[in-house]
Structure formats: C-alpha cells, structure tokens
Amino acid sequence: MWKREYIPDGHDLFRRAYPDQYNRETGRFSGAAFKLRIKKGEEALPVSWSKYTTAEKASVDPQGRKFYVGALRAKVPRDHALQVIHTPNSGNRAHSSIKGEKLIDSPLLIARILSKNCRPLITSI
Amino acid sequence: MAVKTGDNSVLDPVEDLTEAEAPESFLTNKLKRWRTYPTAFDILGRLFQTRQRRSSNSNINNSVLWDWATKGEYTVVLFDKERTKGVAFQPNYGPPREADNSYLAISEHISNWVDYPPTLELVEKFRLASSETVNRIKKFAFLDENWDSYGAKTIEWSTIIKAIDFFSSLVVRLPDNAALPFVAPAGNGDIHFEWEMLSKALALSIPEDKNDAFEYVLTDKTSGKEGETYERVSSMEEIIDIAANWIR
User: Would you say A89 and A41 are in contact if contact means Cβ atoms under 8 Å apart?
Assistant: First the structure.
C-alpha cells in the first residue's frame, strides 16, 4: 500500500466527467459532475492527484472507458471548509478524496463552486 | 424499466413520419377528427406532421397535438393569440395515469376543440425552444449504472418526467428571448438545470427522491463579486416560481 501524503494547495486534482456534463457554450463542466453519490461509508468525491497521474491517464476509468477531465486546485475545496485527502489504494497511487459536511449539507452549492473553479482539460473523446 | 429495454426510437428526432400512421392513444380516441398538416419541418429541414384542433375555450385559441418525429411520443401545445399557454409531453402512447398532471391538464381542454390550423411560426418557435432540452433530458434514461465511472445511479424515468414537467411549466412563463438551460445528469440520480447569463446565473436540481427538496443557487454578478444564495424548497410550484422570476 502507498503511504499517504499531504496534497499541496497549488496541486491539481483531476475529476472525470461524462460528456453530457460539459457545457460547450460556457466552456465549463456542470455542477452535476461534482455531485456526491451518497453511499454509506463513501461520503467523498473521488479525484486523482496530479503528482501521480496525468489528465490523459485520469481520463480512462478502471474499465477502460474514456471520459472528459477537469482540473481543480486543491486550495479550492479547502477554501470552502472541505478536506482534500490523499487516499491511495493498491491499484491507484493518485487516488484522492474531497470530503466534508458541506458536501452533504449543501451539495448543489458545493457542486457549483467546484465546477466554476474547474479547468476543463479534456473535452473530447 | 420498459423504456430502457427495447425501443430506442425516442432518441431519433428526425425520422420522417409523413407516411406513418400514428398509433391509437388516449388522445387520439378523444380527438375523433384530425386535420393533418405535414408542412412543418424539423431542425434538419425534414418534414414532420402536425395535427391540431382549435378550442372554443376563450382562453385557448389554438392548440396542437403534435406528433413529433419520434414514434410513440407526442406533445400537446396549447396556444393563445400571442404566446404558448401550456404544454404537456408524454413519452409513450398509453392510458392516462391518475397521478399524471400532464394528462389531467390536457383533459381539461379536450372536449371543446374544433379544427383550426395553428400558425407554423408559433409551432416552430415553441418547438425549437423546447425540443432540444426535452430530448436531451429524455436521453438520460439510457444511461447505465456507473455511467460516470464513479458509481453513478441510473436516471430514473420518474425523475425525467419530473424534470420535463418542471421545464414545460417554466418555459411558458419565460419571455420569448429567455436563455435555454443547460441540462445535465448527476451521479446521484438528480437532473441539473443551469442558466448562465451576463448578470446572473441559476443552478437548480430536480431530485431523484420524491422526499428530497429542490435545491437552487442564485448568482448575482452585478456587484463585481459574485454573490450566491443557496436555498431549498419542497414543492415544484415554488421552484418554478423562483426560476421564472429569476430568469425574467
């Protein structure tokens, strides 16, 4: 198992998005791409830390499907009382999580904030 | 879910139905006499059929029962002289369900209709404004489990109907030049509507769970720094009011 590390504020977190979640008119991802699926024990938004992956690699899911990718500075969720935690697993050293009560208490507001600050990197498949 | 298992034809918005027979439906049975006007065109310039009746109801001057170029789907549009008065969408032909507001709304106007051709300008104006959004929402029914790679839920047909109900109730209250929303599926099964305008923005979600509130975020960009208001409301009527007042 990989050792957990601190993710610096200036580092990027990659988040995959389904093509229907990208608004070509505004050039932004929808907040829908940052909506938490609340499952017991999984109250976190999965992201990939740029230190251990690239946007291209992050765009491919474990089943080999390709997605769009956006990048978010780690500082953004922290500025909104959320935690950014490195949560590596055996198959994915880049795996990280955004956690916090606001994800559950104000999901649409957090989704909008994260999407507004997300830089689209891959917007075609 | 019946919608997901077989017929994908609802996703084909351009099929030419000029020669096609509309299947029997609750509405066709009620509207015994049809007048067909195969003279309107879809976005790609292909023919589709419109069928319409005029209402003697003083509030409803024109009405259209509109066979979209998608088999097994129809849209009813009620016009007054100047603008769309009401609209109802149904995904499939079939008997009305008691809880279905669209059918109830239609039923109120059916009995007194008489033949009358609507203006194609009105039809086209409404069609362009709504078909893109409605068809996009309906496509979400075909997303499989884990469609976003993060374990997303499927988008339930009940959520889709709710989203279309919301949009169809809202669109008739908006000015003609109002911006259309960007609509997106969310991993928790919700459907998001987002309007991004120069001086303001609105994001709202139609919840999958009937017990969940409708969330919305109003953004005011006029103060130099974006000010955001986040609230929840419990009823469809409230969220329609909020959206209509904010977008105007």
Answer: no
For chain B, what is the total number of helices (H) and then of strands (E)?
6, 11
B144 in any annotated domain: no
| Residue ranges of E strands in B56-175 | 62-67, 74-79, 84-90, 113-114
DSSP B57: S
What domain range includes position B61? 8-133
Number of A–B residue contacts, CB under 8 Å = 93
Q: Please list every residue in chain B whose beta carbon sits closer than 8 Å to the beta carbon of residue A31.
A: 184, 186, 192, 194, 203
Name the closest residue on chain A to residue B228, using Cα atoms.
A109
* The overall pTM is greater than 0.80: no
DSSP B162: H
3-class DSSP state of B192: strand
Three-class HEC string of B11-31: HCCCCCCCCCCCCCCHHHHHC
**B178-224 residue pLDDT tens:** 888 999 999 999 999 999 998 999 999 999 988 889 999 999 988 77
Find, among A49, A40, A46, A22, the residue nearest to A119 by Cα.
A22
Rounded Cα distance, B213 and B215, in Å: 6
Residues B192 and B229 reside in one and the same domain: yes
Cα–Cα distance between B190 and B211 in angstroms, integer?
A: 13
Residue in chain A lying closest to B139 (CA): A20
Structural domains counted in chain A: 1
State both tokens at B235: 């009823």
Domain residue limits at A21: 12-122
Residue B2 lies in a domain: no
Determine which of B140, B160, B182 to mutate to test the interface with A (most A C-beta atoms within 10 Å): B182
> ipTM of this model?
0.95
Q: pLDDT of B145-163, one tens digit each?
A: 999 999 999 998 788 878 8
| Residue B200 to chain A, least CA–CA distance (Å) | 14
